[in-house]
Amino acid sequence: MKREHVKAVFFDLDHTLWDFERNSALAFQTVFSTYNINVLLDDFLKVYIPVNLRYWKLFRDEKITRQQLRYGRFRETFDTLKYNISDEVIGLVGQEYVDRLPDYNHLYDGALEILDYLKPRYSLHIITNGFKEIQASKIKNANIAHYFTTVTNSDIAGCKKPNPLIYEFALKAANADKSTSIMIGDCIEADVQGALDFGLDAIYFNEARNTVPGHISQVYHLTELKNFL
C-alpha cells in the first residue's frame, strides 16, 4: 500500500544498503593474508557470522561493551575452530579488520536505483547502530553521502536501536515528524519492531525471506520499495 503521507525516509545502513557480509568477507581475506591466519575463509565465516550477530545483539542490549564485542566475537570463533591464536594477535586482527572494512563498498542490488528514485521525492536519512567513524567511512567510500540529509548513529545519539530515544534523536536531527516518516531496515527487532513500537511506520528489508508476522510490511528487493513510496 502506498504511503502517501510520507515525507522523510530513514534507512538502516549495514545489511540494508551496504552489503555487510560481502564486504566483511573481502576485509577478512585481506586481514588473514596480512597476519598469516591459516584458516579457510569459508570455514571461518560459517562460525563467525552467527557469533558476530549474537555479540551485536548483546551490544545492542547494553549487555557488553564495544571492547567485549570486538574481542569476544573473534576469541569465540577461533576457539570453536580450535585455532591457536594469542589475545595479542586477536587484538591486531580485530583492529585491522575494522580498519579495512570500509575499503570494500559493495551495495545491495538496487540500492542506487532506489536512492535515485527516492531522492527527488523525500528527505533521506540514516539511523545506524554502527560506530561513528566506521559508518562515516562506509558512506563516504560507497559514494552515497550526497543522498542523505542526516546520519544518526548510536555514538552520537547515546543509545541504540530499538531504544525509542534514538528514533526521537534522529527525527529531531532531520526536522521530521514521526507521523510523516518511515524506517527501512533488515532487523525485525531493532529496525522494524523498534520503530513500530515508537509509533514510526516501518518496512522490513527481507532479503533472506524470513517468515514474518502478517502486520509487518516487507520487501525482498530494494526496488520493491517503489510499491510503497
TrEMBL record:
Q: Name one GO molecular function term.
A: 5'-nucleotidase activity
* Pfam families, per the entry: Hydrolase
Lineage top rank: taxon: Bacteria
> What InterPro entries has UniProt attached to this entry?
HAD-like_sf (IPR036412), HAD-SF_hydro_IA (IPR006439), HAD-SF_hydro_IA_YjjG/PynA (IPR011951), HAD_sf (IPR023214), PGP-like_dom2 (IPR023198), Pyrimidine_5'-ntase_YjjG (IPR052550)
Q: What name does this protein carry?
A: Noncanonical pyrimidine nucleotidase, YjjG family
